Amino acid sequence: MTLTSASPETTMEIGRRIGACLKKGDILALQGTLAAGKTTLTKGIALGLGISEDITSPTFTLISEYEGKIPLYHMDVYRLDSPESFIDLGVEELLYGNGICVIEWSEKVMSELPSSAIIIKMGVVSPSERSITVDNWPYEEFSA
Ligand SMILES: Nc1ncnc2c1ncn2[C@@H]1O[C@H](COP(=O)(O)OP(=O)(O)O)[C@@H](O)[C@H]1O
Ligand SMILES: [Mg+2]
User: Fold this and answer.
1) What is the pLDDT of residue 96?
2) What does DSSP assign to residue 31?
3) Is the beta carbon of 130 within 6 A of some atom in ligand 1?
């Protein structure tokens, strides 16, 4: 399914609806260029998971962990130079653990993700519009 968002608030709302559907073990592979809205969508996903803490971009920390009804592991792998260095971070216990993983710049590590990963491709359509395409979604369609 492909959605179009005309504002950061709408992108967050779409994220919130996605987050409200998720179950432990889900992996969301976020793809798209800088400023496509990956972190904004993740803020909404966290809201949908009932996380009240403010989500910040893990560009430098690589992995941030948030406590909610289900733990959220928010990763940004832009700075990694290989899929192997992703595994070297020790992510396997997160990927196959009891939380939800959201991975920004997942293009870089797709070879290390299970085939069940939900893929969300984001694109810049205009200064204020973003396309959001969700593939491999395992739940009922949500209305957005
Ligand atoms: N429809 C939209 N959805 C999301 N962000 C938008 C939208 N329109 C403009 N923006 C802007 O684009 C930027 C998105 O930033 P961010 O979510 O950090 O992207 P990424 O994590 O993909 O680099 C923000 O500055 C935001 O204000
Ligand atoms: Mg980001």
Assistant:
1) 97
2) E
3) yes
